[in-house]
Each structure stands twice: as structure tokens, then as C-alpha cells.
Amino acid sequence: GIQVEQSPPDLILQEGANSTLRCNFSDSVNNLQWFHQNPWGQLINLFYIPSGTKQNGRLSATTVATERYSLLYISSSQTTDSGVYFCAVETTNFGNEKLTFGTGTRLTIIP
Amino acid sequence: EAQVTQNPRYLITVTGKKLTVTCSQNMNHEYMSWYRQDPGLGLRQIYYSMNVEVTDKGDVPEGYKVSRKEKRNFPLILESPSPNQTSLYFCASSSYTRLGYTFGSGTRLTVV
Q: How many other C-beta atoms are found inside a 10 Å radius of the C-beta of residue B76?
């Protein structure tokens, strides 16, 4: 099956810093999403981004589908940004639009 | 508000006692699925449903059942829970118009 790798696995930053999270995937995908899992375990949808660039406030994402990677940028980090960030790619197999998740990047923002 | 609602959020149960985790979405989505999240193993798909009365196994279906009698509801049934089913469970839904997946808030299940 498809492989999804995220880097770095862990990231510790001071409040106000910027960061870039990377997601590489091994095969063509229908779609890609970025999620934030907060300390309470909830998965919050950040971006639905099969290709191109999107921005939402301090967060932006870019997916280059032809090169099989996506980047998530977080600017001016806040403590509430802490948590685990997952990218998930969607593939279709006999009608099953399955999401395959990466291993995640654990982000810790220090005040 | 568009959302996927799971209940309960937390559940502690004993081995062998049947339980159901409910999932409901209000977005008229055709596609629904269940995932479990375990340390070191990530999120894995349990079952999915492409529409009413259409369900199929995902990657880790053993010990689980599902049904899709109505478009909005997709309950996960554990007929005889065992400790290895202790996990964080998520329900998700999406539309074939491809606007991405919406996840429920999760159900943390402990089987003792």
C-alpha cells in the first residue's frame, strides 16, 4: 500500500517561531488533508489540499502532487498550536476512499 | 453546524459485554468510515460504508460490526469486546463532491 512519511517526528519551538512540516507520499493520490490532533485527542481538519497552495490565518499549506509531497507552514506559533499534526492521503480501491495517515509530527510550543 | 457526532466520548467496559458506539453526521454525506488510533500504529481503518446498506471491511475489521440503515448513522458494534480493542476510535464522513473528510471528536474505549 501507499506509504506516508512525515518529518520531523518531533519539533519544539519557542512561542512566535515559524515552522515547516513535511509530508511525503509514495504514490499518486486523489486528495490530501492536514489535521491537527489537539491534547484532548480531537482531529481538527486544517486543509483539504490535493494540489496548490491554501492559506488560513497563520497557517498555509502547499501540495506538489507531481513530486508527491506537501508542506504545512505555521507562522508566529502560539501555545495552542501544540499537538500532533497529521497528513492523510486519500486513495480509491474498489470504491473505498480510504485515508492513509502519516506517522505525525509532534509540535510543542514553549511560552 | 456541520458535524460528525460520536457517543460516548469515554467508555470503560468489561471483557465480553456488548457495546455500541454511535456516529451521526448532518451533512448528507454518502461515505462514512471508522478508524482506530493506537500508539505506534497510527490510525487504521476498521470499516467503511459507501452509502445506505453498503458496508465493507477496512484493514482491521476483526471483532467489529457495523450497519448503515440510514444515511446519517453508522454505528460501530463490538459484540464481545476484548482488551486488545482498547483504543481511541474515530468516525469520519465525506461527500463524493470531494471536500475532504470530517471527523468526530473520538471515543476513548477501555476494555478491562
A: 22
Identify the closest residue of chain A to B33 by CA–CA distance. Answer: A98
Q: Which of A96, A103, A104 sits opposite B56 (nearest CB)?
A: A96
Query: A85 — contact with chain B (CB < 8 Å)?
Result: no
C-alpha cell read off for A97: 476512499
Contact B42 A96 (CB under 8 A): no
Considering only CB atoms, B94 lies closest to which of A86, A97, A102, namely: A97
Q: How far apart are CA A7 and CA A21, in angstroms?
A: 6
Distance CA B88, CA B75 (A): 15
Contacts of A66 (CB under 8 A, 6+ apart): none
B111, B86 contact by CB (below 8 A): yes
pLDDT by residue for chain B (112 residues), tens only, comes to 889 999 999 999 999 999 999 999 999 999 999 999 999 888 999 999 999 999 999 999 999 999 999 999 999 999 999 999 999 999 999 987 667 899 999 999 999 9
